[in-house]
Amino acid sequence: MLVVAAVPLGFWPTWASVWEDRARERSPAWGLWTLGDMATLLVTMRSPGSGVGEYGYVVVELLCHASVWFMVGLATLNPIRSFGRREGKLRVLDAYLPANPFAVGETHIGKAVFAAQGFAQAETIVRFSGPIVPAARLPQGLSGASDRYLQIGRDRYMGPSGRIDDLINHSCSPNAGLRFTDDGVFLVALRPIAPGEEIAWDYSTTLADPDWSMQCACGSPECRGVIRAFALLPAEVQDRYRAMGIVAPYLDEHDMGRRVA
């Protein structure tokens, strides 16, 4: 029974990930697992000597696999559509599950995140997440595009999450910005963002290390050419970002920690 109870706990990260972005999983695989569980349950029920524990394990597995299948792809009552065929019109889940708000595509600099739905000004786009890493334990040799660590304090960084926030690019003319709250770090829209528009924020609004830099190819008319620490931005840009409330709070402290090389 302990194994049966542990199954939903193992599925919790998948449920959380899929709720945030359905595109991370493919519907056919989860559908096949669900159908396989159903077949296993039928065989188990017909086998002599099968106990309640065996039934319970298969039933829990079936429910967990089916729940993910519904979340990622079973958008209609038509099972053919669930496996990627655009046939049928009996949509039922759109009324209950949020549409995937993001689409991952390619630009001239690689992967990028685009809005699959509109975002209003000041609306929260996504919560940044990832393991918290002390500055002294940062991996060595991080630089440029390979550095996916976000500074969140004088001596603290947030590591890669493996989620959509890892893929959001920099722009010197951002349409989004990070806000630090007691509940976490959130990306918010600085202006209305239309469906199909790339979502981007200015990396400099969290950077304290004057020695860190990355070549910028955002293509904005205001492109600075190099992404560097916030303190090295022009004074008018610093003031504009402060007025927007998207400057990391530790950047205005006098005794800022330095990033460990």
Characterization of the model:
The chain has 261 residues and is α+β, with helices and mostly antiparallel strands. The protein folds into two domains: 2-95; 102-252, SET domain (Beta-clip-like), CATH 2.170.270. It contains five helices and twelve strands. It has helices at residues 2-20, 27-46, 52-72, 79-82, 235-244, and strands at residues 102-107, 110-115, 124-128, 132-134, 150-153, 156-158, 169-170, 176-181, 184-189, 200-201, 214-215, 226-227. The strands form five sheets. A three-stranded antiparallel β-sheet has the order 3-9-8, with no helix packed on it. α1 runs parallel beside α3 and α2 (27-46) packs antiparallel against α3 (52-72).
